[in-house]
Amino acid sequence: MAMTPALATARIAARLTNRFALDLVKLGGFGRDVIDGLLLMAISQANVAKITRSPELQLAYATLDQIPSDDLRRPVSMSAIANSLRIPFETTRRRIQALAKLGVIHTTPRGVIVPQAPFSSPFYRMGAEGNYLLVRTLYFRLRAIGLLEHLPRPNSPVFDPDNPPIRLVMRSSAGYILRLAEPLNRLMGDLVTALLLMDIIDANTEHLLETHEDDLVLSTEGFIADEARRPVRANTLAERLGIPSETVRRHLKRILAADLCELADDGFVVSSRILARDRFVQYMSDNQTHMHRLFTGLAELGVISEWERQRSVVVSPLK
């Protein structure tokens, strides 16, 4: 099927951003499962709302060595976190208590807070560097397919290449994931089920990530042909997301009942028939809007200009 350039670009972008969002959530858990990853991301982001609302503070606490002090963090209630993610309050409370026992979260009469200490650990720094690389790589991949060409290019401070704005980018990408929670909830009704659905889509086609677009076989709907998709088993999904197998099977029943995936001999598949539905097309559009907002914010803070400058230095011929 011949597709318009806009449709082809949207399809490629959807595959890239789906994998990107999953990778961010998995990194956000720092070795825990994706539900804890989402909770930690939401709590931390709420704690530093004073920073994310201020361009000056964003730049003041941009790098790994610039750690926001605890007096800049504001506690957030468990109910506010549960409501923002649409995760049941009892699940939220139980998981936060477990995280508090590990010392990752502090509970106070005013709410919960992720203190400064975990943000200076080697484990955090490794995850933060991985997050930064994911965001930077996605920017150049989207730019290569014709997206993000008209971002602002302000004359912002130049970042030191040896001390990049990793914390700034991590806060911005967490904001993107939390904004994505709303369209994901609309898509599936709850966030965990939606993440599982996203992971099925990713697992079905991840073996094609390095395949050139011109070599892909497409369905009549313009998506990767179903015969090229590889089914994924429930146990594999549990391992990929770090969620108990029984939890995965319970959510898979919901997805099957909603006819949002199909059961094949070797596992589960989200077919091109399903991906062509209006609710998926709307989700793809919402995701692209939030993605553009992420990179617009980074451009306004001078991050994109620095990435472009570094790239031009690398690719320019020696004089």
How would you summarize what this structure contains?
The protein is 60% helix and 4% strand. The chain is built from 14 helices and four strands. The strands form two sheets. It has a two-stranded antiparallel sheet. A two-stranded antiparallel ribbon has the order 3-4.
Explain this structure to me?
- Strand 3 (262-264) and strand 4 form a beta hairpin.
- This protein has 319 residues and is mainly alpha-helical.
- The protein has one domain (5-315).
- It is built from 14 helices and four strands.
- The strands form two sheets. The chain has a two-stranded antiparallel sheet.
- 35% of the residues are buried.
- The radius of gyration is 20 Å and the shape is globular.
- Helix content is 60%, strand content 4%.
- It has helices spanning 5-28, 34-47, 49-52, 55-60, 78-85, 89-101, 122-144, 166-188, 191-205, 234-241, 245-257, 272-275, 278-300, 303-315; strands spanning 106-108, 111-113, 262-264, 267-269.
